[in-house]
TrEMBL record:
Residues 224-328 form the Myo-inositol-1-phosphate synthase GAPDH-like domain. InterPro entries: Myo-inos-1-P_Synthase (IPR002587), Myo-inos-1-P_Synthase_GAPDH (IPR013021), NAD(P)-bd_dom_sf (IPR036291). It comes from Actinacidiphila paucisporea. This is Myo-inositol-1-phosphate synthase. Pfam families: Inos-1-P_synth (PF01658), NAD_binding_5 (PF07994).
Length: 387
């Protein structure tokens, strides 16, 4: 996973939450596809439309990251085999790739008292060391940590100078996920927020990205229920069918289910889910999304949606759908897509929020378009512009 690429610059991938289920699936999947042991199913950037986009080959991505747990990636891969997420023969075939990535995972930073400026400097130092030791041209940092509550308002969040002063003060200012975003941008890395935690919605961090000259994108990867909504809701709008109500229930297992059992964390997820319908449908719609933890589901999730709508002459009708999927297997290929695409954006000198990547997110930053097909067309048009 660390060989010199034959067709482009070296691209590093630094994952926050690098020992989690999604991150482990990312590393296993990239190595398996590169070795010809698995097809690139789910990887948008492996479609023929992107063949000439100049993206870094999957086998030339160099992985590293941080996590607060110390379970080796090989062990995590075995656990995913037991859960039915990873094919049984892959971990043994990919030992070298897993070991190489595992060596690059550092202890994560949690909530702690005291000044955060030294913590940010330490994270930036880890990123610089990762870049230099592997001779990387660019590094993309991806937030795959557990969903965190939105940061409480703070005067320092609106201005970069004020934020830097506050970080040097005696008390913590940023939650850990936002501190990582601050350090990553300051180290000149591209940043992908695959969670709904919302660090990059802080104006001070947007200002930092623009002042350093690096791109970022997010937020909250669109993997299941909202993916269906972004394809289905335009159908009602285009056929002049009035949606009266759209309710959803999500049953989640694993770490994601446990995290979202916390109402403050679930609020971030619910907000990103709800925003898409507001943008997709012409009239206000009654509805809520309920998220329930079901530990027995493990890494799997089920979403059930009930849609009430009016047809001609006010005839009332309903539609229901059930989505059952493996969260890690749905998310991992999108992470690989975003890393490769943001690496291309960095090569083009892109700065600040990148709205052309809205296709991948429930609540895309910098874009109001939520319809899946127009999002794809915008992404494709961007990839076809010369480097």
């Amino acid at each position: 996973m660390g060989s010199t690429p034959a067709h482009g610059p070296r691209l590093g991938v630094w994952i926050i939450g690098a020992r989690g289920s999604v991150a482990t699936t990312v590393v296993v999947g990239a190595a398996a596809v590169a070795a010809g042991l698995a097809p690139p199913v789910g990887c948008v950037t492996e479609l023929p439309d992107f063949r000439d986009a100049g993206l870094t080959p999957l086998g030339d991505l160099v992985f590293g990251g941080c996590d607060i747990t110390g379970i080796p990636l090989a062990k995590r891969a075995e656990q995913l085999v037991a859960a039915g997420v990873v094919p049984a023969d892959l971990p043994a075939s990919l030992q070298r790739a897993l070991a190489a990535a595992d060596r690059e995972i550092r202890p994560g930073v949690g909530a702690a008292a005291g000044s955060q400026a030294p913590q940010a400097a330490a994270i930036a130092g880890q990123l610089a060391d990762f870049r230099e030791r592997h001779g990387l041209d660019r590094v993309v940092v991806v937030n795959l940590a557990s969903t965190a509550p939105q940061p409480d308002p703070h005067p320092a969040f609106t201005d970069l100078a004020a934020l830097r002063a506050a970080l040097a003060g005696p008390d913590p200012v940023l939650p850990p996920h936002a501190l990582y975003a601050y350090a990553a941008l300051g180290a000149g890395c591209g940043y992908v927020d695959f969670t709904p935690s919302g660090a990059m919605r802080l104006p001070a961090l947007d200002e930092l990205a623009r002042s350093i000259g690096v791109p970022y994108t997010g937020n909250d990867g669109k993997t299941g229920e909202t993916l269906v909504r972004s394809a289905l809701a335009p159908m009602f709008a285009h056929r002049a069918l009035r949606v009266r109500a759209w309710f959803g229930t999500n049953l989640l297992g694993g770490g994601d289910g446990a995290t979202l059992a916390d109402p403050s964390a679930a609020a971030s997820k619910n907000a990103s889910k709800a925003r898409s319908l507001t943008e997709l449908l012409p009239d206000p719609v009654e509805g809520q999304v309920h998220i329930d933890e079901v530990p027995a589901l493990g890494d799997w999730k089920t979403a059930w949606d009930h849609i009430a709508f009016d047809g001609f002459l006010g005839v009332r009708m309903t539609m229901q759908f059930t989505w059952q999927g493996c969260d890690s297997a749905l998310a991992a290929p999108l992470v690989l897509d975003l890393v490769r695409l943001l690496g291309r954006a960095m090569a083009r000198g892109a700065v600040g929020v990148q709205p052309q990547f809205a296709f991948f997110f429930k609540d895309p930053m910098g874009a109001r378009e939520h319809r899946l097909v127009p999002q794809y067309e915008r992404l494709l048009a961007w990839t076809r512009t010369p480097l």
